[in-house]
Description:
434 Repressor (Amino-terminal Domain), Rossmann fold, 13 helices, 6-stranded mixed beta sheet, 42% helix, alpha/beta, 6-stranded parallel beta sheet
Amino acid sequence: MKPRITTSxxxxxxxxxxTTVSLALRGDPRLKPATTARIKAVAEKLGYAPDxxxxxxxxxxxxRRPSGQHGALAWITNWPTADGWRCRxxxxxxxTGARRRATELGYRLEEFWLKGAGLNxxxxxxILYTRGVQGLVLAPQPDGVAALELDWAxxxxxxxxxxxxxxxxxxxxxxxxxxxxxxxxxxxxxxxRRIGYSVERKIDQRLEGQWSAAFDYFQxxxxxxxxxxxxxxxxxxxxxRRWLRANRPDVVFGCADDLPRLLRxxxxxxxxxxxxxxxxxxxxxxxxxxMHEDADIIGATAVERVTxxxxxxxxxxxxxxxxxxxxxxxxxxxxxxxxxxxxVA
Length: 345
């Protein structure tokens, strides 16, 4: 039987110390990328393959040690202002989940704003590298931004959500198509016969058309006595009122923060109020039923993905990008406070 190739064999063939080989095979950023590439090429030529039993033993030993700091990760934001991304509560939940999981895994997660004074892609990459940052978690991009430039070869990187189109990185996201499909299925199962979709077109475009595609898929096989109606403008009191009068839905779903208030206001004095459901609500949201996207789990999963890449030495833009999709959960409506009902009326 052919003897197993070891890291000592690679070290002799490459003319380096065995420790350097170990660092290169793990993709340690302390080595120059050229050195890492050369050693990996030697390992491949020799036919090296890790011993799974030794890898498992090393993992066991690491898990038995007290948790300590392994390195730094960066939460990369690209909004016009440093805190602009915080305007969306779900993005804050992404960050909270990511930071919690990073701490549990022995990493620190630092915020890094790409539009800081004097920064360009090269300078930002240099600063991150100098700070010892090994992994990047990219927050969702602002409207109108779909591409970013950095020295990707230096980092392991994962993006949250589908808003970054270039480069194509590994992604962790809510399962947007399944979320809307399940929402529609749940509403239909509860006896709603005219389901309204009220989502501004630009929001659906940010999500690669997955919401509208799921809505179309759901309505494809509806019985003749069931109907779906679509409203793709930003909900305003006048515009929504016209649409509601023309289409008469008995339930409407969407993601606009103002949608519940507008629907409650329209329903005042009517024999049968229009119900509503929201996408992206918090657990036990007052008076709201809908889909909770578990944003903290998405953030935590992104950190798990990027730390695994660091340990495997996977850096740069992947040849084939993958997506990890997290399912949303249905949330029942918590009772509405009487004072809030009176305020709407």
